[in-house]
Specification:
With 73 residues, this protein is α+β, with helices and mostly antiparallel strands. It has a domain of 47 residues: 2-Layer Sandwich (Defensin A-like). The protein contains 2 helices and 3 strands; from the N terminus they run αβαββ. Strands 1-3-2 form a 3-stranded antiparallel β-sheet. A hairpin with a 4-residue loop joins β2 and β3. The protein is elongated and about 70 Å long. This is Knottins-like domain-containing protein.
Length: 73
């Protein structure tokens, strides 16, 4: 009886944990920030400015280190 309970619990645990990792990934769109004016040296600062522009985040890119805001398309 204990083996059946343990097996059922283990099966439930495996099924439940596998559902956490299933997700739908969308395409990420980028747009240059309108408010970030200086050289972009910190992804954190860029992301904060982009969130103020209603984007989900931002990163520093390119040779000239510009801030690009990101969001799901």
């Amino acid at each position: 009886m204990e083996n059946k309970v343990f097996a059922a619990f283990f099966l439930f645990l495996v099924l439940f944990s596998s559902q956490e990792f299933i997700g739908i990934e969308g395409r990420m769109c980028q747009s240059r920030s309108h408010h970030f004016r200086s050289i972009c040296l910190s992804n954190h600062n860029c992301a904060n400015i982009c969130r103020g522009e209603r984007f989900s985040g931002g990163r520093c890119h390119g040779l000239h280190r510009k801030c690009y805001c990101t969001r799901l398309c």
